[in-house]
Fold this protein.
Amino acid sequence: MKLKREKWKKEYLGRTAVTLAGLFIIVLTLAIGAFLFYKGTATFTSDHHTVAEFLFSSNWEPAQQGSGGKVGAAIFIVGSIIISAFALLLATPFSIAAALFMTEISPSAGRRILQPAVEIFVGIPSVVYGWVGLTVLVPFLAKVFNLAYGYSVLAGAIVLAVMISPTITSVAADAIRSVPNEYREASYGLGSTRWQMIYRVVIPAAMPGILTGVVLGLARAFGEALAVAMVIGKMQAFPKGLLSPTTNLTAEITASMGNTAEGSEWNNALWAMALLLLIISFLFIVIIRLIGKKGADKT
Amino acid sequence: MKPKFHRSSAKTTDKAATVALYTVADLFLVLLAAFTIYIFYRGAVAFKPEYLSFTREGIGIQFFNTIYLVLISLLISVPIGIAAGIYMAEYSGGGRISRFIRTCIETLASLPSIVVGLFGYLVFVVMTGSHWNLLAGALAVSILNIPSLTTVTEDALESVPELYREGSFGLGATHWQTITGVILPAALPRVLTGIVMAAGRGFGEAAALLFTSGMSSDVNFRNWNPWSRTSPLNLLRPADTLAVHIWALKTEGIEENAAQLSDLSSAVLMILVFAFSLGSRCIGDRLERKITGSEPKGSKKAWKRK
């Protein structure tokens, strides 16, 4: 009896506690999913809108009270997609180049200077990015392109690109670093120049890891709220071009959530947007897993 | 084929590529330097001693709220994160449950913080029937921190050499005694680095706090009774942090010195973030040297996993 209690103190108590913590993570994740699903589907169940209307209509006039309005969120969805896509286009080449520099060209300078710089970049709060975008980039774009205001898709994309490029850089650099040195030696042995070695051997070998970084960056761009909301102009219209203002999912949620009554049609539609964000972030994880699996199959 | 021509053009491309890569790397550094200098410059220009006061005119309240909220969130998330990390590294056994937990961790880690904020608003504010409060914000930040703390702990424990474990088992320790007496202390530097990094992220968080801890505070700094609504220590009062304050000033700031206050807030926030980023490096290096008696290895990224 006494021995058992000893053993309980020395082993099972702690073991039970940490197991509970592990299970808590499952409960937490499922709870977030369940609550968002419950709130996010109210638009379709209690307000009787169709999923097609929500996704594809651009008629956004939700009622403040009761129901009867229109909840087409296409403008916000398109805004989110366009801005993150452009951010990715801007950030990816630079990030991969930076990752190549710190792994292949100058590993020592990379480790001593560039790596810490990238880590600091990752740590800068997103409101600070938004604030710099608002005070520097927006007036700058207005001046250069002769606009009334500089709030635009381009401003949002640039702010996001600066924000996500450290993420892509550090993931890509890790992937490139883990390419075995024999690959490089074999390529040099065949008479390649350094660039041929990088381009034909290192990049293809590190591709799954690089793609993972790109998807992580995309996920971060898609879910970012405040930095984009500050520079995008929050205009409820499809963008006419790179220089016109528009709005997106996260900007609309942050701007309106506080002003809507709990349970109103407007409020429910905003929750549906939040659910959409959750689903998309989960999709990104599935994509990353698929990339990882493919990479593992290849080697 | 003309090998000679081919060779020289390849060399030219190689040179061009090297130059391009150098340029991009420099661009990165220049951008970061410009960013930092700009933020500190604006902060210095805007600085007035009265802005540091703990009243409506200053950002003292927000500074206090930021530190206090992050501290509370660490009190909640560190035990859970470390415990879950221990479970994943030592007890989960790699079966179906552990794979599912890993999926959950990845899901939590990639959740947009605004979604976490909305969840917190629903569960900690609406469903408890309260108003915006500091505790709800701390809980929301905890949800953001738990996945990274878990992964950091797991990685740290797994990198402890197998010999430590065997030595402890050989002396007759149970698995749990081995973890608390040998493995966790050996992994402590990296765990601490992870905690400091989590704190740094907490300072800058805003989207998750807009609807949980709110965008205002009403505090009397002479009242230190934690049960009073206007006491700075009260957990159930609204509390705007520096990051939220910047957002509020930039979007609906009506005070005439809103621009100066947000400039100064950004600079202060950057100093906090820098201090913690440097701090996590120093703590990690120093503790590693002290405990293992060896030079620190290059810090591995927490989410990197084979």
Observations:
- Residues 56 and 232 of chain A are 21 Å apart (CA to CA).
- The radius of gyration of chain A is 24 Å.
- Residues 74-259 of chain A form a domain with the MetI-like fold fold (CATH 1.10.3720.10).
- Chain A touches chain B through 90 residues (CB under 8 Å).
